[in-house]
Specification:
Layout (H helix, E strand, L loop, with lengths): L2 E4 L2 E4 L4 E4 L5 E2 L2 E2 L8 E4 L8 H9 L31 E3 L2 E5 L4 E12 L2 E11 L4 E11 L5 E10 L5 E9 L5 E9 L5 E9 L15 E11 L4 E11 L2 E12 L7 E2 L3 E5 L3 E5 L2 E6 L2 E10 L5 E9 L3 E14 L10 E15 L4 E10 L4 H4 L7 E11 L3 E12 L11 E15 L2 E13 L5 E16 L5 E16 L7 H4 L3 E15 L2 E5 L2 E14 L37 E14 L2 E12 L20 E9 L3 E9 L6 E11 L4 E9 L13 E12 L3 E10 L15 E12 L3 E10 L9 E10 L5
Antiparallel strand pairs: 1-2, 3-6, 4-5, 7-9, 8-9, 9-10, 10-11, 11-12, 12-13, 13-14, 14-15, 15-16, 16-17, 17-18, 19-22, 20-21, 20-47, 21-23, 22-23, 23-24, 24-25, 25-26, 26-27, 27-28, 28-29, 29-30, 30-31, 31-32, 32-33, 33-34, 34-36, 35-36, 36-37, 37-38, 38-39, 39-40, 40-41, 41-42, 42-43, 43-44, ...
């Protein structure tokens, strides 16, 4: 017969583990002193995810303070079927049998006894009620519920007839807010405060997925525990935290909130080692300022450098929410424009803020702030690997048919070779859009836009335009989807200090210049759908004609249309330049095919296409973008999904002359949610002028994987490798195989605990952010307070 014993209770249907006799086993907090016999002893074991030997040791060394946190066999008392009495002093009860002693004024009820008074409910096998003293003694499968929903179980409970206060033996309290307390003895006073002796607390599940009992991942044992329902907090005296049954360092005084309410207290510690900073220990402390505001203060102590202070303030208002994070320290740093120069000690820090406020159903304000004192601080202290920081502020109004946005942003470059004084500051960009339905049977989209860009030591640009776009979409009797588009736009630009822009094609002309843009387009799709291999396939030929007169593009600056490249996403776009500063003029034909296949468990989605330009005049597209000649390169995308196990996306661009692969990008996910592999590869082989930094060639590979074993354990890792060489990018310092970073770790995570170790290695030096190994220990107690 399959079963499991836990603390003297047998659980049928649960697998058991056997161990050689001779180790001490405690049953309900007391040693099992039965006569030893040869052979094997059946004991409780955790699920297979935990190492068997470790759990056997943990159970064998079970401390005397640990109490039975498992569910009790008696269900909690149900609501009363009878209406509440008019007199609150009356006690409702029911039982299978009732005896009353007139001499002693004692009532004895037996057989599923239930008592109700002022929201207090009791259930037990027997209740003895002394009406003279008001004492109520319940024995056998006792369960008591208070008005807050907390349920107390015990072998014997002594209460007053108010059912609010009393003493309980072998107590288990299941809290309505989550978590449970167990103790050898407990006492509850009239105000609901519970005082426990030799107690345990956990917020973890005590049963596995099969409903069988298991040891909680963590629990707190203490000599004395006080539970204050009014404060929703538990206080411990002489506490220890146990992980997987092993006791940790003792904590003489400890408290934690119950449920999901935030209270002041310590958070999960941060333990890390890096080559540059040495050992790092941080113990964040949360300060609850109000129900909607909180502050986290986290001193970071290092073995090789000065300490760093981290602070985080977050608040929720009736209009929105915001958060501000800051870091501050004093440490040596290089002169980053001359990295080989001497180090100087200086203040270093970083601030990161974000917020959004909904002023009314239409108006909102959004902002973000990201600033740092130097270019390697974030990497040095393992905060971020970003090479640019952008701060923004935006005021928006959105309704059913219009949009208004007033936005500004500031960019801080963290790349060592960049001149910060050449970075753009946009203040402001104003964008207004309005949609008007049913205009000559179609839809009209109007747009007004203005932008001002300034640079402390570079080119300044101001731009304004107004545009209108009309789209008419119809389905023909033969099933073709036909869309007719008309587009018109007028631009005004003003540029100054254009000589500061090194790429001539980006400058434009000094002063004020205007241009007019117009285009007509016809787009035809013809979906053909039919059965195939037990599923459905769809073949959709697509054809587009775009006609646009010549546009004086080079007379205006190019600020937002630099990173141009032919892709499947912009093949049929009206303008294949990103942004507004460049417009693709002339007349062109674009043709392609979309394909979709849906089979049981398999889905394929693909497209391929190309374009042809009628005019023979030179194009403003840079050579190598796939659009510079009359016939474009061939672009496509293929996506294959096999159930929820395989997903592969391949994007490519083929040279029209020799079919050389100019873009090859693969992203693949293989596996389940617990065990999977992520693969990524990108190669841009466009042979573009290296002076165009937004379009430089590169090649890289990415791999990530996670392997789950047991139920809660996993091993994970990832790596990024720069495969770029001099032939692809003459300015690159890579040698064709340069690892950028890798990560490898092991993690345990269940419903209430996350524990892991991660090894990371960076291979590139950036100022004082040195290459080397770093190790991170993660320990997070879920459901323990905030």
């Amino acid at each position: 017969m399959a079963g499991r014993f836990l603390l003297g209770r047998y659980w049928p249907g649960c697998k058991a583990l056997r161990m050689p006799r001779g180790d001490a086993i405690r049953v309900n907090g007391r040693p099992n002193v039965g006569r030893p016999r040869k052979g094997w002893l059946v004991i409780f074991t955790r699920s297979a995810c935990l190492a068997g030997s470790a759990m056997l040791f943990a159970l064998a060394a079970r401390p005397a303070l640990a109490q039975d946190l498992q569910d009790r066999p008696v269900p909690p008392p149900p609501p009363s079927d009878a209406p509440a009495p008019a007199n609150s002093d009356q006690v409702q009860f029911s039982a299978a049998a009732l005896q009353y002693d007139n001499n002693t004024d004692i009532v004895t009820a037996t057989g599923d006894v239930r008592m109700y008074r002022e929201g207090q409910k009791l259930r037990s096998d027997q209740v003895v009620w002394n009406r003279k003293t008001g004492q109520v003694v319940a024995t056998g499968n006792v369960a008591v519920t208070n008005p807050q929903g907390d349920i107390a179980y015990g072998d014997k409970i002594e209460l007053t007839d108010s059912l609010k206060d009393g003493v309980v033996d072998n107590l288990l309290i299941v809290l309505e807010q989550g978590g449970r307390l167990a103790a050898v003895e407990g006492k509850r006073d009239e105000d609901g405060v519970v005082t426990l002796k030799r107690a345990s607390y956990t917020a973890c599940s005590v049963t596995d997925s099969n409903g069988c009992p298991k040891e909680p991942s963590w629990k707190i044992t203490a000599i004395r525990v006080v539970y204050r329902p009014d404060r929703r907090r538990i206080y411990y005296t002489g506490a220890r935290v146990h992980l997987f049954g092993f006791a940790s360092i003792p904590l003489p005084r400890l408290s934690n909130p119950v449920g999901d309410n935030a209270e002041s207290g310590l958070l999960s510690p941060i333990i890390r080692y890096t080559a540059a900073n040495g050992f790092e220990v941080a113990d964040p402390y949360y300060i609850r300022l109000a129900p909607n505001r909180g502050l986290i203060v986290a001193p970071h102590i290092y073995s090789k450098v000065a300490p760093m202070l981290q602070g985080s303030f977050e608040a929720l208002t009736d209009k929105g929410a915001y958060r501000i994070i800051g870091y501050a320290t004093v440490s040596p740093r290089n002169d980053f424009l001359n990295p080989t120069g001497p180090n100087t000690t200086a203040f270093r820090g970083y601030i990161d803020g974000i917020g959004k406020f909904q002023l009314d159903p239409n108006w909102s304000i959004t902002g973000s702030l990201r600033l740092t004192t130097d270019r390697t601080f974030l990497r040095r202290y393992d905060i971020s690997n970003d090479d640019r920081l952008r701060s923004t502020a935006s005021l928006e109004r959105i309704d059913a048919n219009s949009y208004l946005g007033i936005t500004g942003w500031y960019v801080e470059s963290l790349r060592l070779g960049d001149n910060q004084r050449l970075q753009p500051i946009a203040l402001p960009e104003i964008d207004y859009r309005r949609r008007i339905d049913d205009v000559l049977g179609g839809r009209v989209a109007l747009q007004l836009n203005t932008l001002a860009i300034t640079r402390p030591a570079g080119q300044d640009t101001q731009r304004a335009f107004a545009s209108a776009r009309w789209d008419l979409r119809r389905i023909t009797p033969w099933g073709q989807e036909v869309t007719l588009t008309a587009y018109a736009r007028g631009d005004v630009y003003n540029a100054s200090d254009t000589a500061a822009t090194t790429v001539v094609a980006y400058r434009g002309l000094e002063g004020v210049h205007a241009r007019a843009i117009g285009a007509l387009a016809l787009d035809i799709k013809w979906p053909l759908i039919g059965e195939f291999l037990g599923g459905t396939q769809r073949v959709t030929p697509r054809f587009q004609i775009v006609a646009s007169p010549g546009t004086p593009n080079l007379s205006v600056p190019n600020e937002d249309a630099r990173a141009v490249d032919l892709e499947d996403s912009n093949l049929f776009a009206l303008n294949r330049f990103p942004g507004y500063d460049r417009w693709e003029d002339s007349t062109r034909f674009t043709y392609g095919v979309d394909y979709a296949l849906d089979l049981p468990g398999v889905a394929v989605d693909a497209n391929i296409g190309q374009s042809y330009r009628l005019t023979s005049r030179p194009s403003i597209f840079p050579n190598g973008t796939g659009l510079s000649e009359r016939v474009s390169d061939i672009v496509g995308r293929t996506e294959v999904r096999i159930r929820d196990f395989v997903s592969v996306i391949h994007r490519y661009r083929l040279d029209k002359d020799n079919f050389a692969v100019r873009r090859n990008e693969i992203d693949a996910t293989i596996g389940s949610k617990q065990t999977y592999v992520l693969l990524g590869y990108l190669r841009l082989n466009r042979n573009i002028d290296p002076t165009l930094e937004d379009l430089r060639d590169r090649e890289e590979a990415r791999v990530g994987a996670r392997v789950g074993f047991g139920r809660f354990w996993s091993i994970f890792g990832s790596a990024t490798i720069d495969l770029t060489d001099k032939a692809e990018d003459p300015t690159s310092i890579a040698n064709g195989f340069s690892p950028v970073r890798h990560r490898l770790g092991v993690q345990y995570e269940d419903d209430c605990l996350r524990l892991g170790v991660t090894w990371r290695r960076d291979y590139q030096d950036t100022g004082d952010a040195r290459a080397g190994n770093s190790f991170l220990l993660t320990l997070a107690f879920k459901n323990l307070g905030r």
